[in-house]
Specification:
This protein has 6 helices and 4 strands; from the N terminus they run αβαβαβααβα. By secondary structure, it is an alpha+beta fold. The longest helix has 23 residues.
Length: 195
């Protein structure tokens, strides 16, 4: 049986690890991102593959010590109002919840709009090329993602994908960076949390 001393020691140990991770996050220098621009109206299989080919796989030897954080943002020239985008997304989620729906129930969650946020999603992946494809494709597999092609093809939603490569940062420190950005940017879709 656990004792109160066990609990107190566990919390003290966790606090020590988190303080080190937060101190590490404070020292992180933001790298220049790789940036891709696209419209959801143009998300054919060929276009998705062409976009993904521009992104690192995350599987090369030189990527072994790298962490990849990414954002989807509304582009400055996007003319689709945020509420129209969210309505389309929520309608697709509602379809997945209907009785008799036979496809995958794998759209990420929607969040309450956080002020004037233009950030659609904040995430992290060890395989950024494959993760980008998951977000862009329709929801044919079981992985939770945005699946833009599933619900945004008719909208001409204009987006920017930004990929940041961080080298030599431990997993806990990278989680602090990701969660801090998530809390600050308040993305419209997705969830905050440990990998």
């Amino acid at each position: 049986m656990l004792t109160q001393t066990d609990l107190a020691s566990a919390i003290l140990h966790f606090d020590s690890h988190m303080r080190r991770a937060i101190d590490g996050a404070r020292a992180v220098q933001l790298p220049v991102p790789q940036t891709l621009h696209f419209s959801t109206r143009q998300l054919s299989a060929t276009r998705i593959d062409a976009l993904a080919e521009q992104v690192v796989t995350g599987k090369r030897n030189e990527d072994r010590d790298a962490s990849f954080l990414y954002l989807f943002r509304l582009a400055p020239d996007n003319a689709v109002p945020c509420d129209v985008m969210l309505d389309s997304f929520l309608a697709a989620r509602a379809r997945q919840e209907q009785d008799g729906y036979r496809g995958k129930k794998n759209l990420c969650r929607a969040n309450a709009p956080g002020g004037s946020s233009d950030v659609v999603y904040v995430g992290r992946s060890g395989s950024p090329r494959e993760r980008l494809k998951q977000h862009l494709r329709a929801s044919g597999n079981g992985t939770y993602a945005i699946h833009f092609a599933e619900w945004a093809g008719a909208l001409d939603l204009r987006l920017v994908f930004q990929l940041y490569r961080f080298d030599g940062i431990g997993d806990r420190t990278m989680q602090v960076v990701e969660d801090g950005l998530w809390d600050h940017l308040q993305p419209l879709l997705g969830k905050r949390g440990e990998q």
